[in-house]
Automatic annotation (TrEMBL):
It holds the Pfam family Methyltransf_23. GO terms for molecular function: 2-polyprenyl-6-hydroxyphenol methylase activity; 3-demethylubiquinol 3-O-methyltransferase activity. It comes from Pseudomonas monachiensis. The keyword Amino-acid biosynthesis does not apply. InterPro entries: SAM-dependent_MTases_sf. GO terms for biological process: methylation. Transmembrane segments: none annotated. It is an enzyme of class 2 (transferase). This is Class I SAM-dependent methyltransferase. The keyword Transferase applies. Its EC number is 2.1.1.222, 2.1.1.64. Keywords: Methyltransferase, Transferase.
Length: 251
């Protein structure tokens, strides 16, 4: 659903906003919500080799897995601009990683990893199977695949569809049944799914002006801020309100 030029245009303005990642960052810090997600689903990843498919851009998730969790990380992406941004982010944070410029669909792994991850990538593929097969081929025996997508079933997704039609059109909804069935057919032995994230009201910047957008925008900020005090939505995800839905599978 997207090509290199699309992602180059997304990431080309990003370098000016890059900065060092704080250990106290609510989402990506040492004990932030992302670290809690990784520890809950993967346990300790210290010293393990992590591959992220579609890992270009301002990738604080991959950075945090290296900076705070001591994983050996690799980002693969076909966007030149995206790779420039993630490399610069790692340099600013004095962290090291590996960066591969390749198209996932035409890429053949030359080594295998303990864990493969991707965040917000699979929904850009009309057919999820080829990418999941690539994930499988890049994993060691008993390796784990962890990935997530925007929760397009959430109540707030209807606002995204109505007010951000161009952005919405770049995304494909893949049902839980389809994803789990495909993972099992490829050869994964154990498959699970979950929801997480703050309540989902705003999925993209508004493209169409409409009544009621300002209150929705404000409410999304309130929901995100409230998770700092009451992180229940991150701990106990819900199909109708959570920002993201995820899957974990074992080879």
């Amino acid at each position: 659903m997207t090509d290199e030029s699309y992602w180059d245009s997304v990431w080309s303005p990003a370098q000016s906003s890059l900065s060092a990642l704080s250990g106290s960052d609510f989402y990506y810090g040492k004990n932030g919500l992302f670290a809690r997600l990784i520890h809950a689903r993967l346990g300790s990843i210290k010293g393990t080799r992590i591959l992220e498919l579609g890992g270009g851009g301002e990738n604080k998730r991959l950075l945090s897995m290296n900076k705070w969790m001591d994983a050996d990380v690799t980002a693969l992406d076909f966007s030149d601009e995206g790779l420039k941004v993630v490399k610069e982010l790692f340099d600013i944070n004095q962290c090291s990683g590996h960066f591969l410029n390749a198209d996932i669909c035409n890429w053949t792994p030359d080594q295998q990893y303990d864990t493969v991850v991707h965040w917000g990538v699979l929904e850009h593929f009309i057919d999820p199977r080829p990418m999941l097969e690539k994930s499988f081929s890049a994993l060691k025996s008993n390796g784990r695949l962890l990935f997530s997508m925007p929760n397009m079933e959430a109540v707030g997704a209807q606002l995204w569809k109505n007010w951000c039609p161009e952005n919405w059109s770049k995304h494909v909804f893949h049902s839980r049944e389809l994803i789990e069935k495909t993972l099992h057919e490829i050869g994964f032995s154990t498959v699970g799914s979950f929801h997480y994230g703050v309540p989902f009201l705003k999925g993209a910047e508004w493209e169409i002006a409409a009544m009621g957008q300002r209150p929705i925008d404000l409410l999304q900020k309130v929901c995100s801020a409230s998770a700092r005090v009451v992180p229940i939505f991150h701990k106990y995800g819900n199909k109708h309100i959570s920002m993201e839905r995820g899957f974990i599978a074992v080879k």
